């Protein structure tokens, strides 16, 4: 059941809700229900990638909203107030308008999920000295074998050449 358009309009009436809470795009029609902010479809994608435990993303047009969701959303007071609260909680200042999607993604992550490491950038596992030594030894052995093979390849053409004068001598 899609939300009635009056719900979407109600949500957009809250202060600041005519612009995406994250990038400032006009007339956002997605929402982070638990953070009480309206966001554009692009920022909604980033919110979704954070996981529903961090940001519960819903469309104001396509999804149905339960009464308590609407209430909890509205209780945050709209984008202006929710952003002010997030800033108080340590959210970084928003990037300038027209910032790249990558910059916005980093901003959104820092704003809503300050303690989760970015995708594909998880901290390196603690270095295990023994494992590091084994890897160094394997690399050294591989390098030595490569050098030996290269040396053999260099010698290889010499054999037929050396046998050539032998065969001509025997004539
Ligand atoms: Zn946006």
TrEMBL record:
The keyword Oxidoreductase does not apply. Pfam families: ArfGap. One of its GO terms (cellular component) is cytoplasm. Residues 84-103 are annotated as: Disordered. Gene3D superfamilies: Arf GTPase activating protein. Residues 5-112 form the Arf-GAP domain. InterPro entries: ARF_GTPase-activating, ARFGAP/RecO, ArfGAP_dom, ArfGAP_dom_sf. GO terms for molecular function: GTPase activator activity; zinc ion binding. Keywords: Metal-binding, Zinc, Zinc-finger. This is CenG1A protein. It comes from Symbiodinium natans.
